[in-house]
Amino acid sequence: MNAGSSSLKLRILDGADRLTAGADLPAPRGEADADTLRAWVRANGPVDAVGHRVVHGGTVYTGPVAIDREVREQLSDLADLAPLHQPKSLAGIDAVTAVLPSTPAVACFDTAFHAGLPAAAATYAIPREWRERWGLRRFGFHGLSHAYAARRAAEMANEVSANFRVVTCHLGSGASLAAVVDGRSVDTTMGFTPLEGLVMGTRSGTVDPGLVLWLEEHAGMLPAELASALELESGLLALAGTADMQQVILRAEAGEPDAALALDVYLHRLCGAVAAMTAAAGGLGVLVFTGGVGENAPEIRRRAARGLSFLGVEIDPDRNLAGDPDRDISGAQAGVQTLVVAAREDLEIAAEVRRVLG
Fold first, then answer.
1. Domain count of the chain?
2. Are residues 164 and 297 in the same domain?
3. Distance (Å, rounded) from C-alpha 94 to C-alpha 336?
4. What phi-psi label fits residue 96: left (phi over 0), alpha (psi between -120 and 50 degrees) or beta?
5. What sign has the CA pseudo-torsion 152, 158, 163, 165?
6. What is the C-alpha separation between 305 and 310, in angstroms, rounded?
7. Of 69, 87, 106, 283, whose CB has the highest number of CB atoms within 10 Å?
8. Residue 43: how many CA atoms within 13 Å on its side-chain side?
9. What mean pLDDT comes out for the span 335-354?
10. Is residue 205 part of a domain?
11. 318 and 224 in one domain?
12. Helix (H, G, I), strand (E, B), or coil: what is residue 131?
């Protein structure tokens, strides 16, 4: 169960991880209609266990955990770390619990995959008192997607050796990269919140904190106003007038200067971040594109590969344009393997549920 901004994404998997049912139920403001949810579960059950995607586990939860009353309360306490995301996760938990009160449930965290980041990657250069008093650090997000994409890349590359180096690009309305070495995250682009890092659909990505302080002091903007603008009114939407990447690409091709600038900014940040992740991993063996944009925008992959050619990235034009996800699009002379992998957070969640519940 994946609670989004306007829907509950439900997937039912059997014991062999085959998808047997799926639905995206409307959930405005993170609240699903209980009767609709109950009817869907009854029509597609029985259900043996439930796995919930939860955005933030803080420093309390560094792995999946069975949900009980105490865990539910602690997850609520963590809402301050992700005020725009955590309440939706909690609403999803409550909605499904009301429908399946006796079914075991497991919380699976987007932050957990990055919990073991090296100190050099996790630590902000801010006063020690702040870090120790409030546990301020780089958490990273999209961990369920990055974990699955890295593992799937190893399968597709038939790679079992140690020090297998992958950079996973989760590109969707939200976007982040991860440097993964031998299945472990060693760096990522998102930080204390999902605002850090790449330019996204409506999120700014990294900005100078001094800019935010300047707006607060000189423009009189309140923290809540700033947070809303950086989260909901920035990114591609602010640059091109739309958060839809396909529309941005079409408008850029039609000669709209704002859309062209948006693409240039997006790709400038993306290529720079891939290079940074490569440095963190100590090299690059496989580059993975996943997520809505990563899977469905060949123009982004083409232009990114061109910008990353100095790392040995080269893609085949025909493979890039045609085919389903989970395919190799590397060019004949490529020094780096480039893959397109379908985002399957549901499979990662299912695996974590089985580990917790046996």
1. 2
2. yes
3. 45
4. alpha
5. negative
6. 9
7. 106
8. 11
9. 96
10. yes
11. yes
12. helix
